[in-house]
Amino acid sequence: MRAVTSLAKKRAVMPGEGAQQRSQTSRIVLCADDYAMTEGVSRSIEELAQAGSLSATSVMVTTRHWPQLGARAQQLRAFVAVGLHINLTLGAPLGVMPQLASRGKFPTVGEVTARALRGEIDREEIAAEVVRQIDHFEQVCGHPPDFVDGHQHVHALPGLRDGVLDALVQRTRNPPPLVRDPAERIATILKRRTALPKALALSWLARGFGAAARRAGFPVNDSFAGISDFTPAGAARDFERAAIGAGPFHLVMCHPGFVDDELGAIDPVTERRRVEHQLLLDHPPFPGRLWRPERDASGPPVDWLGRGFARA
């Protein structure tokens, strides 16, 4: 990753004049999920961050790549917010989890969701693993996470969310991290017409999570987009529709990446990642509205509340 001395500080970009009133007050945070999932995904995100095409990236600290990516993640902080992508569905946990991962491997997201709906989640076990992941992030990156979200949105599932928020309360410093709320208004989902069954199901599963996070003292995004069916041909359309119904602080997730054998072995989303990378590089979405942090690589965590980006 190239040096950042000449680009040590990035200015926040405000909405452009002439847009509709709602868009004028919207700040869009575009977050690339899955940093450290594979080397190819990580290099893609680094390239896009340096090009100014992203606002944030969230890190999977349970993978074999994370310990070697610490220095690169520190440099990324000059370009984007860097957060924790809580992982409870891919690979192995950082510690023993006899209930959720009795064989030393996480269950699939479908299995985790089913257990959550049946009330079969050990709150203390989830909290302990999330604390381990927060600590591992800080040990390798040298800074606390700017925000927290979850791989496949498991952090917002019933039952799991209680352990997640317990861990965040236990380990949070000032300023507190932003917590991603993946729920969206039903009317907005219907207007976007993007992956409707998936978007509606996620909003139902995550209902009440944003309010719970705010009660715990954490800033939360006002609106959310980025749910898709991951078809490569639909990438440009999905980005175009992602700003529909944007609230004052709008969070959009994306999944760019360079495809390699490792990615193909652990994740079904491959070609869509390549297409997203090229789109974001050649035609960055949300021109004039994309937020980026204002700090150098060694700067403090993003103060979402102090700068008025989010509300608790």
Any overview of this molecule?
With 312 residues, this protein is an alpha/beta fold. The chain has one domain: Alpha-Beta Barrel (TIM Barrel). Helix content is 36%, strand content 11%. It is built from 12 helices and 7 strands. Strands 5-4-3-2-1-7-6 form a 7-stranded parallel beta sheet, with helices on one face. Helix 10 links the parallel strand 6 and strand 7. Helix 5 packs across helix 6 and helix 7 runs antiparallel to helix 8. It is globular. The chain starts with 20 loop residues before the first helix and ends in a 30-residue tail after the last helix. The N terminus is likely disordered.
Any descriptors?
alpha/beta; TIM Barrel; seven-stranded parallel beta sheet; 312 residues; single chain
CATH first level: Alpha Beta
On the 0 to 100 scale, the average pLDDT is 91
The fraction of residues in strands falls at 5-15%
C-alpha-based Rg, rounded? 18 Å
Number of domains: 1
Helix residue percentage: 25-40%
Shape summary: globular
For the largest beta-sheet, the strand count, sense and barrel status come to: 7 strands, parallel
Helix and strand arrangement:
Elements: H1 21-24, E1 27-35, H2 39-50, E2 56-59, H3 70-76, E3 81-86, H4 109-118, H5 123-141, E4 147-150, H6 160-171, E5 178-179, H7 186-192, H8 196-205, H9 209-215, E6 223-225, H10 235-241, E7 249-254, H11 261-266, H12 271-282
Helix pairs in contact: 2-12, 5-6, 7-8
